């Protein structure tokens, strides 16, 4: 009789002959996931675990995507208007900048060499209002190649700039000063003419040829582009430039170009790159990104702990069922796999739902921002604070995979102890008072 029972139970998947995660084990695990009236509280805990994992995964994906997008947008805008390498003179001013720019632009890996004259000014409008600004004097042919500017002229054109009769300003500066294309903007520089009474500020008005908008409020509100020859006259730098900015094909491979640029210059120069000039800024972004990942991982960890508590309560509630299954021939491994699948199912389904929710929000992140701005009546993600006019989101496949793997690992680990407790349950003790 006993041998026949064992043989029947083995064929049905209850005994040692049953395969791992057999049909019987899956059916029992699925039965335990469905709620009955007396198991409602356990199901509530399982529901909270599912929601916690879903929200944890979605939050991780959304936050990491926004921070990736934020960094990418900032890098593209900062490096789109500033050179990847900045070459400055050591032994004397760059009076031979046309020939030197040609040499540097010919270095393999360098896309463009941009001679610049820069200076701080006070920009004001005739109708009133003023703001600090940075004037960047550049040749018209070079500025045309700088697509971040030339492809983002929102009003006007570069014809006046190319003829030397106009300047380009950002849209935010124009709005702040109440200026339009064709108006005059007055620039005041403290480094003016030397008189018997001392240095007098230099004041001159320029016609606005065009308005650009690169999408970074700090630049759109503070930079003025002026024809190079006019900037040289304005800043008392006739026939020379202060620096030459190089734009390269691969900004991350900047170290390999440094020696080639120094050799091509043929004179003493000081070379700094974009990482050195923005080291503090990008380091802060990286630290913030890592800390946010660790903090948000705690949401998933809390949800995994809910899985433990829910399974332990389920094991206590199903003690008699486990004992009956054991007496019918189910092995300890089969019982362990049943409860492992029960807990793992919550983690797997919650993770899948979290990924779908995260992707959905990331794809519609700007619409979500506008909706919550409308609901709250406030401006979320203010461009004046965060530098960007839109909320960016850029999902990284490897990062998303690591979030999924981490979540599933925590969920599976959380199920091990309750499943082990269920497999160690003594049938005699469980049925003693039944």
TrEMBL record:
Protein family per UniProt: Belongs to the ABC-4 integral membrane protein family. LolC/E subfamily.
Keywords associated with the record: Cell membrane, Membrane, Transmembrane, Transmembrane helix, Transport
One GO CC annotation: plasma membrane protein complex
Highest taxon of the lineage: Bacteria
Start and end residues of each ABC3 transporter permease C-terminal domain: 294-427
Domain MacB-like periplasmic core: 50-263
Name the record gives this protein: Multidrug ABC transporter substrate-binding protein
Membrane-topology descriptor: Multi-pass membrane protein
Presence of the UniProt keyword Transmembrane in the record: yes
A Gene Ontology biological process term: lipoprotein localization to outer membrane
Residues that span the membrane, as ranges: 40-67, 291-315, 335-359, 371-389, 401-420
InterPro entries per record: ABC3_permease_C, Lipoprotein-release_system, LolCE_TM, MacB_PCD
Principal place of residence: membrane
Localization: Cell membrane
Coiled coil (residue ranges): none
């Amino acid at each position: 009789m006993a041998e026949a029972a064992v043989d029947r139970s083995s064929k049905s998947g209850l005994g040692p002959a049953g395969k791992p995660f057999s049909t019987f084990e899956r059916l029992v695990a699925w039965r335990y996931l469905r709620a009955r009236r007396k198991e409602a509280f356990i199901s509530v805990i399982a529901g909270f675990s599912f929601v916690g994992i879903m929200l944890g995964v979605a939050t991780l994906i959304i936050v990491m995507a926004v921070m990736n997008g934020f960094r990418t947008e900032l890098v593209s805008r900062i490096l789109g208007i500033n050179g990847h390498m900045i070459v400055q003179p050591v032994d004397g001013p760059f009076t031979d900048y046309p020939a030197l720019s040609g040499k540097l632009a010919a270095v393999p890996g360098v896309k463009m060499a941009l001679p610049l004259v820069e200076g701080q000014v006070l920009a004001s409008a005739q109708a009133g209002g003023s703001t600090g600004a940075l004037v960047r004097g550049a040749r018209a042919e070079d500025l045309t190649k700088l697509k971040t500017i030339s492809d983002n002229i929102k009003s006007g054109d570069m014809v006046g700039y190319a003829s030397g009769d106009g300047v380009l300003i950002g849209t935010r500066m124009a709005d702040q000063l109440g200026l339009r294309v064709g108006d005059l903007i007055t620039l005041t520089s403290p480094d003016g003419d030397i008189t018997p009474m001392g240095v007098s500020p230099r004041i001159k008005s320029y016609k606005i040829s065009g308005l650009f908008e690169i999408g970074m409020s700090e630049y759109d509100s503070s930079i003025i582009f002026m024809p190079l020859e006019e900037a040289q006259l304005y800043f008392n730098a006739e026939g020379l430039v202060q620096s030459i900015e190089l734009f390269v094909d691969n900004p991350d491979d900047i170290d390999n170009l440094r020696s080639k640029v120094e050799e091509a210059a043929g004179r003493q120069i000081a070379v700094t790159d974009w990482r050195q000039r923005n080291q503090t800024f990008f380091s802060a972004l990286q630290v913030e990104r890592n800390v946010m990942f660790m903090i948000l991982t705690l949401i998933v960890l809390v949800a995994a702990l809910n899985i433990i508590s829910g399974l332990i309560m389920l094991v206590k509630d199903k003690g008699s069922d486990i004992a009956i299954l054991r007496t019918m021939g189910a092995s300890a491994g089969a019982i362990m796999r049943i409860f492992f699948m029960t807990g793992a199912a919550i983690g797997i389904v919650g993770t899948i739902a979290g990924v779908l929710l995260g992707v959905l929000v990331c794809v519609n992140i700007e619409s979500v921002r506008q909706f919550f701005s409308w609901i709250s009546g406030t401006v979320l993600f203010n461009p004046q604070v965060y530098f960007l006019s839109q909320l960016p989101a850029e999902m990284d496949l490897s990062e998303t995979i690591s979030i999924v793997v981490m979540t599933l690992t925590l969920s599976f680990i959380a199920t091990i102890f309750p499943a082990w407790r269920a497999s160690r349950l003594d049938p005699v003790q469980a049925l003693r008072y039944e």
